[in-house]
Amino acid sequence: MLGTPGTMKLTGDLAQNWSFFHQKFELFIKSNKMEAETDTYKATLLLATIGDEGLKIYNNFKFENAQDKTSYNRIVAKFKNYFIPLKNVTVERNKFWERSMGENETYED
Fold this sequence. Notes:
With about 110 residues, this protein is an all-alpha fold.
Protein backbone atom coordinates (compact mmCIF):
# COMPACT_ATOMS: atom_id res chain seq x y z
CA MET A 1 0.00 0.00 0.00
CA LEU A 2 1.36 3.38 -0.99
CA GLY A 3 1.36 6.25 1.51
CA THR A 4 -1.63 8.46 2.11
CA PRO A 5 -1.89 11.82 0.34
CA GLY A 6 -1.42 13.74 3.60
CA THR A 7 -3.74 16.30 5.10
CA MET A 8 -5.26 19.19 3.19
CA LYS A 9 -3.65 22.58 3.65
CA LEU A 10 -6.33 25.02 4.87
CA THR A 11 -4.41 28.26 4.42
CA GLY A 12 -3.86 30.31 1.30
CA ASP A 13 -5.83 29.55 -1.87
CA LEU A 14 -8.41 27.05 -0.61
CA ALA A 15 -9.81 26.31 -4.08
CA GLN A 16 -6.38 25.36 -5.36
CA ASN A 17 -5.55 23.45 -2.17
CA TRP A 18 -8.79 21.43 -2.43
CA SER A 19 -8.18 20.60 -6.10
CA PHE A 20 -4.62 19.48 -5.33
CA PHE A 21 -5.65 17.40 -2.30
CA HIS A 22 -8.50 15.76 -4.22
CA GLN A 23 -6.18 14.96 -7.12
CA LYS A 24 -3.66 13.37 -4.73
CA PHE A 25 -6.43 11.43 -2.99
CA GLU A 26 -7.76 10.07 -6.32
CA LEU A 27 -4.22 9.01 -7.26
CA PHE A 28 -3.87 7.32 -3.87
CA ILE A 29 -7.11 5.38 -4.46
CA LYS A 30 -6.00 4.28 -7.94
CA SER A 31 -2.42 3.44 -7.03
CA ASN A 32 -3.62 1.20 -4.19
CA LYS A 33 -6.27 -0.43 -6.42
CA MET A 34 -9.15 0.74 -4.23
CA GLU A 35 -11.50 1.84 -7.02
CA ALA A 36 -13.69 -1.22 -6.39
CA GLU A 37 -14.03 -0.46 -2.67
CA THR A 38 -17.42 0.63 -1.36
CA ASP A 39 -18.54 4.23 -1.46
CA THR A 40 -18.59 4.28 2.35
CA TYR A 41 -15.02 2.96 2.55
CA LYS A 42 -13.70 5.68 0.23
CA ALA A 43 -15.68 8.35 2.10
CA THR A 44 -14.26 7.17 5.42
CA LEU A 45 -10.74 7.13 4.01
CA LEU A 46 -11.17 10.66 2.64
CA LEU A 47 -12.39 11.95 5.99
CA ALA A 48 -9.58 10.16 7.84
CA THR A 49 -6.91 11.75 5.63
CA ILE A 50 -8.25 15.29 5.09
CA GLY A 51 -7.12 16.42 8.54
CA ASP A 52 -8.75 17.77 11.68
CA GLU A 53 -9.89 21.08 10.21
CA GLY A 54 -11.33 19.38 7.15
CA LEU A 55 -13.23 16.96 9.38
CA LYS A 56 -14.63 19.90 11.35
CA ILE A 57 -15.87 21.42 8.07
CA TYR A 58 -17.47 18.09 7.13
CA ASN A 59 -19.22 17.93 10.51
CA ASN A 60 -21.01 21.18 9.64
CA PHE A 61 -22.31 19.99 6.25
CA LYS A 62 -26.06 19.48 5.92
CA PHE A 63 -27.09 16.33 4.05
CA GLU A 64 -30.52 15.46 2.68
CA ASN A 65 -30.44 11.96 4.19
CA ALA A 66 -28.21 9.67 6.26
CA GLN A 67 -26.97 7.77 3.19
CA ASP A 68 -25.53 10.95 1.66
CA LYS A 69 -23.43 11.48 4.78
CA THR A 70 -21.41 8.35 3.89
CA SER A 71 -21.44 8.77 0.10
CA TYR A 72 -18.00 9.51 -1.31
CA ASN A 73 -19.36 11.44 -4.30
CA ARG A 74 -21.75 13.51 -2.14
CA ILE A 75 -18.98 14.37 0.33
CA VAL A 76 -16.61 15.36 -2.48
CA ALA A 77 -19.36 17.55 -3.98
CA LYS A 78 -19.94 19.24 -0.59
CA PHE A 79 -16.23 19.97 -0.19
CA LYS A 80 -16.01 21.25 -3.76
CA ASN A 81 -18.96 23.59 -3.21
CA TYR A 82 -17.42 24.75 0.06
CA PHE A 83 -13.92 25.42 -1.27
CA ILE A 84 -14.79 26.42 -4.85
CA PRO A 85 -17.95 28.53 -4.62
CA LEU A 86 -19.78 29.44 -7.80
CA LYS A 87 -19.12 32.92 -9.14
CA ASN A 88 -21.96 35.36 -9.53
CA VAL A 89 -22.02 36.09 -13.27
CA THR A 90 -23.72 39.47 -12.82
CA VAL A 91 -21.09 40.64 -10.32
CA GLU A 92 -18.23 39.42 -12.53
CA ARG A 93 -19.67 41.21 -15.56
CA ASN A 94 -20.02 44.38 -13.53
CA LYS A 95 -16.37 44.14 -12.43
CA PHE A 96 -15.35 43.71 -16.07
CA TRP A 97 -17.33 46.69 -17.33
CA GLU A 98 -16.29 48.93 -14.41
CA ARG A 99 -12.62 48.27 -15.11
CA SER A 100 -10.66 51.33 -16.15
CA MET A 101 -7.22 51.49 -17.70
CA GLY A 102 -4.41 52.54 -15.41
CA GLU A 103 -2.24 55.60 -16.10
CA ASN A 104 0.86 53.64 -17.22
CA GLU A 105 -1.06 50.66 -18.58
CA THR A 106 -1.08 49.88 -22.29
CA TYR A 107 -4.17 48.72 -24.17
CA GLU A 108 -2.74 45.20 -24.45
CA ASP A 109 -2.20 44.98 -20.65
